[in-house]
Design the sequence.
């Protein structure tokens, strides 16, 4: 009788009997699935759950036929020599009776079944994967030497089903022979359930398999996260090659050949001044090229690029070879700012972070804008992982309302860019809890308009220095300039409209295309930068269209789209 009860498992188990459902208390027995009879039509098309749940009368008729079949075969359950042919004949006789019942159903029911069979579904794929799990459980559950013929048969069926499934993700991807292989596998599983009828032992085995699988998934996810973070910190070989070639060319130039034109515009406060701090040649090129390409008055644009002494020759050479049209460009090295490197760079290096992006002096140089540009009244600061898609003239007319910083807010929970101050700042510290509201709306770096006159009047840079030194003494916030910026510009930030700055292209693959294309500036914040192989493929086009891939140096360094 145990074999007959297990034979009811031939039908594909529904979603509520997935592998995770095995997690039960040790004292409980594994509950069998609902008694459902295998239908021949299930193998010719898809497994229809709707047919099983059509009506109580259908289920009662199925159960009665199953009972008759079980009673007819009850006397044969102790016969160890019953072969596969006998089992198939019993299934065929059962299916023939169900065929007669199926032909008597209403036309509406038949139409519903046909419409379900035409739907794109993956039910058969899931059923075959479930068969593989059960077969592997039985084959590993068998003790060495016990019924070796059955074990070999299961292994053969496993190979057949695995080849049939392959890389299929939906039923239409399966070969025509898949249905026959499913039938053969079910027959073998029925025989195995007769040989190994102990449900509690099988539940233990499946539970162990599920635990091992979950551990493997957890390990793989941790490894993937580590490798992605590592890849985000590295410089691609092509970019390193490009830097070396440009640096070599730069030092062949005479001093007078290294000068950029229109340098008299650098201190004109009536022009549109943009700044980007970076050590990445292509990133700087895209920011500059996209801004100028989108501008209505490029002759009024002045770009200030600040880098380190190692990359100064390469970035300078790139823009000498590829001048920014009518716009003006100025390249500086951070080492030229003695007031910065001697007094505060040591504090940055002592920050407890292994990520150079957070401890980089270029990342914190944004808090010294009035010192870098003493003659300017306003400036727009870009991160080097942005692309400008629209004219930014209107940004300069934004009413700052007496504030220092204009930025897009990130406090909507429904958006991918959602951030809370308490996610990054330690409000258990009395100093912070007393001075700042943990629920205040946050904002983003990446594209910010700064009023340098108001900045100087409020002495924001001194405030930043005090917070930086305080954070060095005790753990107040996570590494990086963002939480430090939130408290430095606390109550000194005015919100920009969302259309000015779209975030998330460096970590979130579900952004709406319309939101991206309507934004004046798109930001690849996150580790998946567009110049890296790990970048999100569908967003790379917005960035790569501003790269001169036909440039000889890029081709020589094997930098391709």
Sequence:
């Amino acid at each position: 009788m145990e074999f007959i009860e297990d034979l009811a498992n031939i039908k594909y188990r529904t979603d509520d009997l997935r592998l995770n459902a095995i997690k039960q208390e040790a004292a409980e027995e594994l509950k069998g699935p609902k008694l459902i009879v295998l239908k021949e039509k299930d193998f010719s098309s898809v497994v229809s759950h709707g047919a099983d749940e059509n009506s109580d009368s259908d289920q009662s008729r199925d159960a009665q036929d199953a009972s008759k079949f079980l009673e007819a075969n009850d006397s044969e359950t102790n016969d160890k020599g019953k072969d596969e042919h006998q089992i198939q004949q019993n299934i065929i006789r059962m299916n023939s009776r169900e065929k007669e019942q199926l032909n008597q159903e209403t036309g509406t029911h038949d139409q519903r079944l046909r419409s379900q069979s035409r739907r794109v579904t993956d039910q058969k794929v899931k059923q075959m994967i479930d068969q593989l799990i059960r077969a592997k459980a039985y084959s590993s559950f068998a003790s060495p030497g016990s019924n070796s013929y059955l074990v070999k048969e299961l292994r053969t069926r496993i190979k057949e089903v695995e080849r049939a499934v392959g890389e299929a993700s939906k039923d239409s991807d399966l070969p025509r022979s898949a249905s026959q292989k499913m039938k053969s596998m079910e027959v073998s599983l029925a025989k195995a359930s007769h040989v190994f009828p102990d449900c509690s032992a099988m539940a233990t085995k499946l539970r162990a398999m599920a635990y091992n699988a979950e551990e493997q998934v957890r390990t793989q996810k941790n490894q993937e996260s580590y490798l992605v973070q590592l890849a985000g910190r590295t410089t691609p070989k092509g970019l390193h090659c490009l830097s070396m070639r440009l640096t070599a060319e730069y030092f062949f130039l005479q001093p007078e050949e290294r000068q950029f034109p229109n340098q008299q515009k650098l201190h004109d406060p009536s022009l549109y001044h943009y700044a980007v701090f970076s050590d990445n040649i292509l990133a700087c090129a895209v920011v500059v090229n996209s801004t100028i390409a989108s501008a209505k008055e490029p002759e009024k644009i002045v770009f200030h690029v600040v880098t380190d002494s190692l990359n100064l020759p390469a970035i300078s050479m790139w823009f000498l070879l590829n001048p920014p049209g009518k716009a003006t460009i100025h390249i500086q090295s951070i080492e030229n700012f003695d007031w910065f490197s001697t007094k505060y760079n040591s504090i940055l290096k002592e920050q407890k972070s292994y990520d150079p992006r957070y401890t980089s002096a270029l990342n914190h140089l944004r808090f010294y804008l009035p010192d870098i540009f003493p003659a300017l009244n306003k400036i727009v600061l870009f991160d080097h992982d942005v692309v400008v898609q629209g004219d930014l003239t209107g940004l300069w007319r934004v009413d700052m309302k007496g504030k220092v910083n204009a930025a897009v807010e990130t406090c909507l929970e429904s958006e991918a860019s959602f951030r809370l101050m308490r996610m990054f700042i330690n409000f258990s510290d009395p100093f912070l809890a007393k001075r700042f509201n943990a629920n205040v709306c946050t904002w983003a770096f990446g594209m910010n308009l700064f009023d340098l006159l108001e900045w100087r009047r409020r002495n924001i840079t001194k405030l930043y220095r005090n917070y930086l030194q305080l954070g060095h003494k005790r753990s107040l916030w996570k590494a990086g300039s963002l939480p430090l910026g939130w408290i430095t510009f606390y109550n000194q930030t005015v919100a920009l409209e969302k259309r000015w700055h779209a975030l998330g292209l460096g970590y979130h693959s579900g952004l709406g295309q319309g939101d991206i294309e309507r934004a004046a500036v798109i930001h690849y914040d996150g580790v998946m930068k567009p110049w890296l192989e790990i970048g999100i493929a569908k967003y790379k086009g917005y960035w790569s269209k501003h790269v001169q891939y036909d440039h000889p140096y890029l081709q020589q360094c094997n930098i391709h789209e």
